[in-house]
Amino acid sequence: xxPARIRFDSDWNETxxxxxxxxGGTLVVDYDWARLPDCRVNYRGxxxxxxxxxxxxxxxxxxxxxxxxxxxxxxxxxVYRVLAxxxxxxxxxxxxxxxxxxxxxxxxxxxxxDFGNNYHFWF
Length: 123
Fold this sequence. Notes:
The protein is an all-beta fold. It has strands at residues 4-8, 14-18, 26-31, 42-43, 46-47, 49-57, 66-67, 69-71, 79-81, 84-87, 94-103, 109-112, 119-122. Strands 6, 7, 11, 12 and 13 form a 5-stranded antiparallel beta sheet that branches. The protein has a 4-stranded mixed beta sheet with strand order 2-1-3-10, with no helix packed on it. The chain starts with a strand and ends with a strand.
């Protein structure tokens, strides 16, 4: 068993780099933050920004967004890169992805959505 892994790299490539997208399988999203470099504020000494991976399958099943960032605890003020992992519905043949960068206080908001078209993969 190997999940499909889509990499969104800093050179603006979106590529299935491992496995294959299959109904009932698993999709791993590997997102490079360099694609959304702007919203990086600290609030009261702690990082208060994040990037969400949004996803929609053609089956219409609602899927909650997942973060591709994680902050450390109160002693660790680092932001870590994480992979988002989504189950693929059994009846899906298409997936659409886009990314949202925001921060607190909410003075910056940015999107990586292929200029509003979102990123599409068929399987």
